[in-house]
Batch of 2 targets.
Target 1
Amino acid sequence: MTGESGGYAAPNDLGALRAFLDANPGAAILAGGQSLLPSLRGKAPPQFVDIGRIAALKAIETGSRVRVGAGVTLAALARHPAAAGGIAEAIGFVGNVTIRNRATVGGCLAWADPRGEIPLIMLALGGTVETDRREIAVEDFIAGPFLTTLEPGEIIVAATFEAGRKLAFEELLVRNSTGRAVVAVACERVGEARRYTVSGLVDRPVRSTPIADDPSPWFDDLLVQFPVLADASSPTYRRRVLHALALRARERM
Amino acid sequence: MNGVLISLRINGGAVAARVAPDLTLADFLRGEQRLKGTHIGCEEGVCGSCTVMADGETLRSCLTLATQMDGADITTVEGFDDPAGERLRKAFSEYFAAQCGFCTAGMMAVAREFLADTSVADHRDEAAIRSRLDAVVCRCTGYQAIVAAVRAAAGAE
């Protein structure tokens, strides 16, 4: 960051955060900062409003649905029993340990990386994003690559998903650690059929309808639902990777 | 100065400082606290050389603002003079795990967190060590020695 400082505030509760954003509509919400801070290289620093002091955003509540506060770090979520059904496994592919110690669930959703693991897993689980104004289904929340339907000043408060669901997660990384996914797949059993949620094919994660598993040519059914973007790098390769990963995930479900 | 007052602990000592709102923890440690053991490589979260510990967890100090660390307990490589740190220093020295030394502080921080992690079944397991050490890049590619040093430190526990 270069240039005049924009200022910093760290409200202690959601009410104070709301009041601060109303008074300073241009402020940038800072959670873990693992995507925000590198994106600011060479730019003028914004006015930061740090949500790290808001205890209400750090809770994980369990019941028939799991409610994960927006400020919960990926490391904390991965350690929680509610992450057992494939979530912890998917989080293991995010960055590396030091990134996961800081990156937050709310931040990953707000960033909406089209190949991010958190948007994919939340979509696979039929999750919702809870803001200070409304609750949005993940598929309606993600509007494109790094785009969401969040309104100006709207605050992500939590992510929710149904408890006890089970996913098999597979991913091929460009390279280890900070590399991004080439393709990632989450597979869930729905009766005798299986449902796949996939990133790396189009401009956002996508979820299939349940696909009959056998003896139908399930992979063709999957490809019909998810044509690889013509301008994606090497669509043929992506299809082959998808096939291999979907096969592995399917065998585990 | 348009600064933010923070108070935190660094290597066991209480520190209070007024910092610019956009000052990174890495620049704060090196520039203002003169703790030059924390190295700054890429400044965008890729290399891991700037890794330090805050409240027992590693973080990238180039991707953290100093202001975010108000109230935190920071340990940099200069603070690795306790038994856990000594074990690592001895092992890194014995196995020549510091080639040019640029990544060493980051490697040691990640190794220290790994060795203290009770959820790891076997701290001598090479695959587990490697998957954890991928948080830091060694541009000398001296990974074999670093992995060997962490295994040795795990054995010395």
Note: Chain A touches chain B at residues 1, 5-8, 10, 30, 33-34, 37-38, 41, 45, 47-48, 50, 52, 75, 79, 95-99, 101-102, 176-178 (CB under 8 Å).
Target 2
Amino acid sequence: MPRETGLPPGTLTLLILRVLNTQTLHGYAIAQRIHNLSNEELAVEEGSLYPALQKLLLNGWVKASWAISESGREVREYRLTPSGRKQLDLLVTDYRRVSQAIAFLLDRA
Amino acid sequence: MLARALRRIWYLLNRRRMERELEREMAAHRAEMDDPRRFGAPLRLREQSADVWGLRWLDDLWRDLRHAARQLRRTPGFTLAAVFTLAVGIGANTTAFGLVKTVFFAELPVPSPEALRQFEWAGHRDFSEAAFRYVHDHVSGFAALTCVTGQADATLGRGDREEPVRASRVSGEFFRTFGPAMAAGRPLTPADDRAEAPPVSAISYELWQRSFGSEPSAIGSVITIDDVPVTIVGVMRRGFTTSVGRRLPDVLLPTTPSRAPEASDRSARERSCRIIGRLSADRPEELTQQESERLLRGSGLTLPIDREPQLLRSRLRLVLRRVGRGIDEVPVDRGLVRGLANDLPQIAGTMFLLLSVLIVPCANVAAMLLARAITRRQEIAARLALGASRARLVRQLLTEGAMLSALAGVVGVLLSWVLWSMAFSDAAPFALDLTALAATAAICAVATLSFALVPALTATRGDLASQIRESSAGTPGRARSAPGASLVALQVVISCILLAVALLQARSLLRLTQPAAVEPERLLLVDVNPGRDAAGSYVDESLSRLTRVPGVVSVAAASSDGLYISLCEDAEGRAGREIPVWLWGISPGYFATTRLPLLRGREFTGLDSGAAGSVAIINGVLAQSLFGRVNPVGRRLPLAACRPGEPTVTSGSLTIVGVAVDDRGSAAIYLPYAQLAPDGTMRAITLSRITFAARVAGNAVSLAGPVRRAMRESAPGVTVGAMETEAERKGRGSRAVRMLTAVYLLLGLLATAQAAFGLYGTVSHFVNRRTAEIGVRIVLGARTSDVVRLVVRQALTPVVIGLLLGLACSPIVARVMWAARLTSEAGWTELLAIAALITLVMLSAFAVAARPVRRVSRLDPAAALRYE
């Protein structure tokens, strides 16, 4: 299952925070959304998703609450906290800077 | 960071719920998926997710603790033995330390009490105020110097109310010497200690509470002390005192002015005070001592002024004695038979030596753990084979060790408390010495932990298969070498040494406290103060009257206080090294009455009076340092100049007529009373107080009346003090010392008991280990005697080796301790006693160890073969 190899380490946090920035989502929806938004290029395995979500909870970047999903199931939805939003900005800036530098280097070298 | 920690704690508290939520969440996730099988193992996923919270170690710890508890419960015998062994060690040590700390090392609650010194001039602590002022004005080695009079009863008047109080007078620098001490108001200052200053006083916190209701207005109010008005200028803080364990007087007044009230019972006497100074930091103490000694010698103002002939003054010694610790306040040796015990501080120092007592329980538990390690090797190997990681195993075993020491710590503290309340509660309230507890517990923990690791270390050595296979079915394999043959031997050696140390210590202490006089309870003592002029004839008169009292066997008199002087000549009368020596005046019959043995020569008789040649008796210590092995009887004890330019005394040379036993280790010279008087040369040591001693045949108490009457009749005007026996007098001063002796003996016995216990454990373990093998031997035709011999030989050999080594070591230990001035010299009798005791104790240990051996001899071979 080499679907995840495209994810550089640490990027998963960024992706989760990013998709949660616009709306609250439950675990399955997060995975789906990342999959869809990436033109089905990226897939998040459950084995990584849940530890990552727990880490976000631990850091206080997201909050979880129970809700009823569109399909009528009880699901746990994650919502970004203000400190999570700050963290997202930070991560985005960092990521842009690094990826630009890498792209630059790949073009020139 | 803090927020994270808080969230973690919150998670921990709501853990159950959080985990259930995660489970539900994942279930929902699976339900949403097209192919739930792709979700992976939910349990593993849940664990991985929960691990993010970093609380796994807690789970592991909890599991380890439960496992450890199960293990310890499974072998209750082992657990009880190990915990108790360690607990006894911890308890005894903690008690001993607490005791020593509260009794001896308690410090005055003042800044740097170690810099405080009290003057002791020729063995006396009382000085005239004139002498103090002289020293104070001329000495430069003290940051502050004060003089404090004894406490006296006084009457405090306030309005029309009166109440009795205790009052002391202090000179101007009192508060500079002892440091800041005020709760309110200001301290007494040098300015208050002048004749033209208005009369003021400082009062104690207790008096302020008791009589002034803690009113701030007390400061500045005027009270009367013995009808003289004084103004209160300050209140001392609660707990402030100038000697450990004693309360400060209620009222402090300046020493000087004639206008200040005279404390009532002092007025008759010559007022004297004690001089206490705070050494300045930038001057060596030696220089200060020499400077002060020179000043006092030159002043001509020291208290026994008119009884202090020129000759002696140049020899009187000034000692700057440390004050400010509990040990400085321990009264030593106030009986008739004296020689001062100057070695108490060193004895207290050896307490630390006895921390080593703890080595024995540690060694015992180590041996137990080692023995267990062997039996557990299979279990550990099996667990390793099943995939347990080595680190995890080590953690688990460490937890077990930690649990053992923790249990032992708790039981140890309980034991300490029980011991204290049983034996020492009247000496000092129970004080758990936390430092000592921590130290002992740490040592125990380190020992337990390191030995708890052994199973893990041995089990992971070598291949697993052979270890699992290594059952007890007749092939003991490597485990055959007893776990710590050398450990057992070492333990026995340590126990022997500890026992020797404890015995030597206890004996030295006992010698300090035990009256040297034989049957001290039959020696009736009374102090009198006949006044200087009457002394000579008074002694003769009183003695002859006392002799006639029915029931009195013999009588003697001695100066109540000795003089501490320097002797600076060698046997030939040449100037040699200075020897500090106590000088005592005694009457004929002193040795007969005290029954203190004379090593050589004779005691004084009625013929050794003024007209005859001057004679002296010296004690063994002085004989040894002056004459070595030569018999000093008949030789001269010349008195040469101590320093160049000082006068020599030609007529003062003394003939030695006897050598007294040295009971305390300090040199002493006894001079006959009758020769002290005539020309006044040695009058100094008569001073004023004389102790009369009467040895009685029957009950001392019933004779107290007649003896007192006889004393009164011989000189009606003289005050006769309280009657006491020598035993009573000694017992009073030496409580603390006796207590310490008890502690020593206790620790020594403990070490021995522990060693014997360890021995039993070793033999019993040995037998257990080899039961199967022994069964095989019996089946193959070994006789009982062969088997017993085998066990005895292999199990007891290390013990015997240890015992022999220990016996060989004890004289060395005695020698070392003597050389370090920790104990007095041990003679053959002591060494033999130690050897006998060690052997006896070990023999009883053998007797205990015989039990498992007997079990071997009754072994049923069939059962033994199956023995696991």
Note: The two ends of chain A are 32 Å apart (CA to CA).
